[in-house]
């Protein structure tokens, strides 16, 4: 019986010693962790990055025309009065306007000042332009007349075209060509071909009449 008690006492002593060692180890680990927390800097919070649309579809469509004009303010007045553009942005400086943007429905038109030093010339300075801007409006005759009243030279009177639009061609104050159009019908391919044939015949007849008049 005495032996059994002795063995139990030894086992209890070992367990108690092990518990004390574990407690000391845990206490030491806690002190070390606390010391490390005091000396280490808190991790910097990352700012959330805003995703940028590389195509900037909120502001622009696939292609945006940029016209060089001799007087941006005059050009803006013409485009807003005649075509109904709305001014969206103007970058004005002590030296004058260096950039402007106008909107017409889903289209943006950029304007930049003419600069001979940078070879940035208007159509009038070049003497012509290979570009015609095709603008669709509700009433081509009304808009065409507004352009003419604003001083635009008529390059082609308003007429019904074989593809179904009624169009007229004018130049703006800087010499840019604008084809003003209203969609009037949707002909079939056969109807377009016939209308084009009749138009060509009419143009040839007009050219023949003009040549005959000039020879007299």
What can you tell me about this protein's structure?
The protein has helices at residues 2-39, 72-83, 123-126, 140-149, 189-215; strands at 66-69, 86-93, 96-104, 107-113, 132-136, 154-160, 165-171, 177-183. α2 runs antiparallel to α4 (140-149). It has 216 residues and is α/β, with parallel strands linked by helices. It is built from 5 helices and 8 strands, in the order αβαβββαβαβββα. It has a domain at 66-204: 2,3-Dihydroxybiphenyl 1,2-Dioxygenase, domain 1, CATH 3.10.180.10. The N and C termini lie far apart (152 Å). A hairpin with a 5-residue loop joins β7 and β8. The mean pLDDT is 86. 42% of the residues lie in helices and 25% in strands. The protein is elongated, with a radius of gyration of 40 Å.
Helix-strand layout with pairing:
Elements: H1 2-39, E1 66-69, H2 72-83, E2 86-93, E3 96-104, E4 107-113, H3 123-126, E5 132-136, H4 140-149, E6 154-160, E7 165-171, E8 177-183, H5 189-215
Parallel strand pairs: 1-4, 5-8
Antiparallel strand pairs: 2-3, 3-4, 6-7, 7-8
Form type? elongated
What is the averaged pLDDT score? 86
Number of helices, where a helix is a run of at least 4 consecutive DSSP H or I residues: 5
SSE ordering:
HEHEEEHEHEEEH
CATH class of the domain at 66-204: Alpha Beta
What would you say about this model in short?
With 216 residues, this protein is α/β, with parallel strands linked by helices. It is 42% helix and 25% strand. The chain has a domain at 66-204: 2,3-Dihydroxybiphenyl 1,2-Dioxygenase, domain 1.
């Amino acid at each position: 019986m005495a032996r059994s008690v002795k063995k139990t006492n030894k086992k209890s002593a070992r367990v108690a010693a092990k518990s004390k060692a574990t407690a000391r180890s845990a206490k030491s680990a806690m002190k070390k962790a606390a010391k490390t927390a005091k000396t280490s800097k808190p991790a910097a919070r990352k700012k959330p990055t805003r995703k940028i649309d590389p195509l900037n579809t909120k502001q622009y469509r696939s292609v945006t025309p940029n016209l060089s004009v001799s007087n941006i303010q005059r050009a803006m007045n013409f485009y807003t009065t005649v075509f109904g553009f709305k001014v969206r942005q103007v970058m004005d400086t002590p030296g004058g306007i260096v950039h402007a943007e106008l909107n017409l429905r889903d289209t943006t038109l950029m304007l930049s000042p003419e600069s001979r030093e940078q070879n940035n010339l208007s159509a009038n300075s070049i003497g012509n332009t290979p570009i015609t801007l095709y603008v669709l409006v509700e009433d081509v005759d009304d808009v065409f007349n507004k352009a003419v009243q604003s001083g635009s030279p008529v390059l082609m009177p308003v007429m019904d075209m074989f593809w179904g639009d009624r169009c007229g061609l004018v130049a703006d104050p800087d010499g840019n060509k604008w084809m003003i159009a209203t969609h009037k019908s949707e002909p079939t391919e056969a109807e377009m071909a016939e209308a084009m044939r009749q138009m060509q015949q009419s143009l040839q007849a007009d050219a023949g009449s003009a040549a005959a008049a000039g020879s007299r």
